[in-house]
């Protein structure tokens, strides 16, 4: 920078050269006034630069450095002001610039964090000062403010109402900041919006707009985006489609959805991709890949909850999924497979399912209790996706659900349907949607008034290997049975244990969790009506499940002994997290948030437990249950037959040897 400033000394010479060359090159007569005016301007310019350079030469190095930094800061400030003005018109205007210049995004992120600090800290401070929760709508002693002075009324107003306002503003600031940073940050916001256990309600409400209310193009801009994305352009669109609503139904990080109508008469939903997404992904993901490598080199610092993992490996798989998400042909294939696995056809009708249970038999269609839009693969392309139009109520819009007559029991049923669907996805389909946030889930009200769960958006999906699916099922069953030994065996099958894992300590920790009730499956609540009994089709097995849970509790009470107390820190180092399980964990985290929004008592395993018989098949389920109940006979280590075999051998008889 200093050398550049020194080069400015050449500018006066350039100005003189420009003056002389301009004068000599002039062939046409000019008025004296114009010539004099030009000379004065050039003279002023030359004098100004000379005086500036003279002033700079008088500065010491420290002053020059400070001047350079001040100039740079002024430049950044001007750039930020211009960006803010553009974002006031279009919140997505800086996505491309941030991808081209990651330092600008880093600065914007730093400023966002700095601005959020007061909104995070102040409510907690006020809560500690008052000794009362600041999240409520009122305070028991607040009405007594009428007897106090106006000054005290102001203090009361600040203490009991300001924190809620601070949280509301903080949530809005955070959501708006993520929106302006780009599509990957919107994805982060979508995930966080499902975690009501981590954020205040005001923040959750603000982040929910990132699910389906991202600023979108409409009018002529929407038509231009449509023609750019549609195969065949303008002519290709009008050849196949009779109508298009240029006001979007919803918009998210990658695209926006519009209503349309085919020339054959069917109403469809048309998903159009935003412009420049691939270029933005290329640059953002390249940066994140470098960060993942750095985190891996940090060793323990790269652990999550103490569990060692390869962030580069996780990122590599995430990168594949994210790139597939911006190719709508892949999303179309995912949607078609998802519908086939659950046996759902056009119009939500039941068709034969392609998924099989553990007994090898095809699973029943789920069209009675869930639905997904039919996908028109032949009309879709990389940036253009055509689906059946399926209107519904957003699963987290509780006010509209109430207005539609969805009862508390209906919500419990919907939460259980969500768990049931993911039990099938994990353990039978071996293919699951990794992004079940509320923007991708709806509730359809059927003609008989019953609700049905609707799945949308399959841009992010993940496949599981056979051993991974079986391992997940065995973990679920071991938790239902409170069987620590089986839990360890399931972890081994899943491939999440390192070679040096201390199985004894892991089993002791599992047993400790079961004994203390930290991991416990709740019994299914009795429903007050038969409204959903036909659709669940597992009520006949509730008695068996209750007996199974009772037996598990009885066994714990009878065999409970003082086991070695093991801290989490002692065993987390024995686990390694494969990338597929990172997506399983993400899906579980999001569906847990959705489930608790519908039913505060929701937990995935308790809700999924009654449907194990569907996944395993009736025959396989009954055989496995019989083996467990006769374990005291057939157990290879401690069963009656094993003990009798040992007794015979101790007496000199070998039952395996037959004498002639």
Folded structure, characterized:
- This protein is α+β, with helices and mostly antiparallel strands.
- Strands 1, 2, 3, 4 and 7 form a five-stranded antiparallel β-sheet that branches. It has a four-stranded mixed β-sheet with strand order 6-11-10-8. Strands 5-13 form a two-stranded parallel ribbon.
- The chain is globular and about 130 Å long.
- It is 58% helix and 8% strand.
- The protein has four domains: 2-58; 90-212, no CATH class; 289-629, no CATH class; 634-660, no CATH class.
- α19 (484-494) packs across α20.
- The chain is built from 29 helices and 13 strands.
- Residues 1-28 and 134-148 have low confidence and may be disordered.
Describe the protein's topology.
Elements: H1 2-7, H2 10-25, H3 32-58, H4 61-89, H5 95-100, H6 102-130, H7 150-181, H8 183-192, H9 201-207, H10 209-212, H11 220-229, H12 233-240, E1 241-244, E2 250-251, E3 255-262, E4 267-273, H13 277-297, E5 308-309, H14 311-325, H15 328-342, E6 370-371, E7 384-388, E8 393-394, H16 398-403, H17 408-429, E9 431-433, E10 441-445, E11 451-455, E12 461-463, H18 466-481, H19 484-494, H20 503-515, H21 533-536, H22 542-559, H23 568-571, E13 576-577, H24 579-598, H25 604-608, H26 612-616, H27 618-629, H28 631-634, H29 640-650
Task: Tag the structure with descriptive keywords.
660 residues; alpha+beta; 4 domains; 5-stranded antiparallel sheet; 4-stranded mixed sheet; 29 helices; 13 strands; ABC1_dom
